[in-house]
Amino acid sequence: MLEVAGLTVRFGGVTALHEVEFGVPDGAVCGLIGPNGAGKTTLFNCVSRLVDPVAGSIRFDGDEVLERKPHEIAALGIARTFQHLALVPSLSVRENVMLGAHFRGRSGFAAAALHLPMVRREEGSMASDADEALHRVGISKLADRSVQGLAYGQLKRVELARAICEKPRLLALDEPASGLSHGEVDELAALLKRLGSEMDLTLLIVEHHMGLVMKVCDQIVVLDFGSVIAAGTPAEIQENDRVIEAYLGAAA
């Protein structure tokens, strides 16, 4: 489903990613872990075309992602959430989630300004998709509420609903468990497993919460200083000496 090969990113004299290579099979849940500054979010930003690498390839189901522009990524079948919430405070929960479906709209500026029947039909379809996404993440009752004043865990679910409203095939989640309580993390793990199964999703997850990673991931890729230092199953990663050293430091 996703193939990353030789990916290299430099910011001035700093190499953020160095010849990164890994693959994610269709339907798999892949965790991308590593210490702060390892290059995880930079890799996400390459996949979503917010950062241009100096070398390498990212192929999604055989299609070269790096040949696409940022606004074409959603139509390709890739959706993502962000490390920091990116919601519109002035909009309702439903309206925020509807933003995930807007790339499917075909009406132009003039039609929207005149609110023609085509626009009303598209808005109705987007609202229906948003309500389905809210139901999937368990917050349907909040649909008409403003996002302002909602609890942080609820806001994270709003952002997740917006991402799945795009109806993606690959869902990239940037630290979905950050800021959540232990109970909320357990609920999130169960939710991600269910969404992956029900929606036939491939998941790529950047996360520091090792409990979540070990519960939901089929495979894990470990980055350190911009390079892949290990890849394998959760059990293999837990016993990998290089991974232990990267997280805990070498013994004196």
Give descriptors for this structure.
252 residues, alpha/beta, 10 helices, globular
Written account of the structure:
The protein is α/β, with parallel strands linked by helices. The protein is 38% helix and 23% strand. It contains ten helices and ten strands. It has helices at 40-47, 73-76, 93-98, 109-114, 117-137, 152-165, 182-198, 210-216, 234-238, 241-248, and strands at 2-11, 14-24, 29-33, 55-60, 63-64, 78-80, 170-174, 202-206, 219-224, 227-232. The strands form two sheets. It has a six-stranded mixed β-sheet with strand order 6-7-8-3-9-10, with helices on both faces. A four-stranded antiparallel β-sheet has the order 2-1-4-5, covered by helices on one side. The model has no long low-confidence stretch (mean pLDDT 89).
Topology:
Elements: E1 2-11, E2 14-24, E3 29-33, H1 40-47, E4 55-60, E5 63-64, H2 73-76, E6 78-80, H3 93-98, H4 109-114, H5 117-137, H6 152-165, E7 170-174, H7 182-198, E8 202-206, H8 210-216, E9 219-224, E10 227-232, H9 234-238, H10 241-248
Parallel strand pairs: 3-8, 3-9, 6-7, 7-8
Antiparallel strand pairs: 1-2, 1-4, 4-5, 9-10
Helix pairs in contact: 5-6, 7-8
Low-pLDDT residue intervals, each spanning 5 or more residues: none
Which word captures the global form?
globular
| β-strand number | 10
User: What proportion of the residues form beta strands (DSSP E)?
Assistant: 15-25%
Summarize the structure.
The chain has 252 residues and is of the alpha/beta class. It contains 10 helices and 10 strands.
